[in-house]
Amino acid sequence: MMEKNNSKEDSKSMCLISSQPVHLDNDIKSFETVSSKYLITKSVNLDEAIEIVGFGSFHYYILFICGSLIAAISISVTSVSFIIPAAQCDFQMTSVHKGILNGSSMIGMFFGCFISGYMADSKGRKYTLVVCMMIDGIFNLISSVSQIYLVLIFCKLMSGFGVSGITVFYSYLGEFVNSKNRKKFICWMELFWTFGVILLPCEHYNI
Asked: Which pLDDT band, with edges at 50, 70 and 90, does 206 fall under?
């Protein structure tokens, strides 16, 4: 009889021990479900949402993409100073003509900032950046084979219009990075402008 009682007690204790993990698993699953529902239904601001997502290699990838485009824009803007000496002979330009050519991209940037800013708020940052970079690239290609002074002026004007989208990079990159690393990433992105300015004379020297 004693052996039977002991066996019954052992079986009961085993049942209690085996049932505890089941209850723990159920509690964990219910807690995860409640937590996920809480995160989905709770309204958070942008900075809190970025903190929830976390920080990783994706942000460095975005920094590299934005920085590379910043470097391309710096080459596009500063390349006029290398074009003018050769264009002076080809187009028989005076000082006035050289001033107009040098300032045409700035005029395009002045008027393009208003439109690119409106597009960024209404159509989205990515859409605006893609359109602006396409405009800059296409008209830079056309200007590289232009043999007419007025066509060159128009191409540089439209190139400046596309370059005006550079202001969107700061808000685009800042919306991906948390507040702790935002200032640091924007400063790092500015370094790519310097890299582009250094790369341009090196490329011009080799040509």
From this structure: low
